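Service request form, structural biology core

Requester: graduate student, group of Dr. S.
Request type: structure prediction, single chain
Budget code: on file
Notes: please return the result as structure tokens.

Sequence provided:
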Amino acid sequence: MDWMQLPLAPVIYPLGVRGDGIERIAARWRHEWSCRGELRRQHPDGLLLSVGLNDTARIGRIDGRPQLEPDAFAFGVSQLLAEMRSVTNVFVLGLTPVDEHVMPFAECLWYSNKAIAATESALAEQCREANVPFYALHAEIQAQTDWLQWIEPDGIHLNTIGHSWIHNALQHWPPLLNWAGLSPLNTPTPISS
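Core staff response, request fulfilled:
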């Protein structure tokens, strides 16, 4: 059952756009949903934030300067989470792995799974400090034997299989289920003695 599609389910706005890093998301997040259907006159019940992958790229070559310094990323996430939490419930997704064999992306951006893992760790730490639920994706996706088949030929974007996997994982994520007022779908049956 896809509980997110139920008529009385809370409205979750997925916030993250291809190509945008923390700075662009921070600049536009408040206005993002104001032109979207039923959200024009209200705030979403929750935000599902996906940010950070674009900030991990190195420019020009594999050892080029980072798109954003790690400390600046952590500071930006800290500020963004504080702002968002003052408006609505926030949930954060970790970062997805990339296929390093097809780098560079767009002939100038080098992504590495090592940098992505470090950035996801910094993202998780900021979420812990802000008391925001965080779903780590990087290692969990890489643990799947066919994960490279979930990535588009560009090496960084997930295809429909990858997005479906994440959607399914979120359907069973306890923080989202609890927030939505639903119990986890796989709770064990208590055994009475």
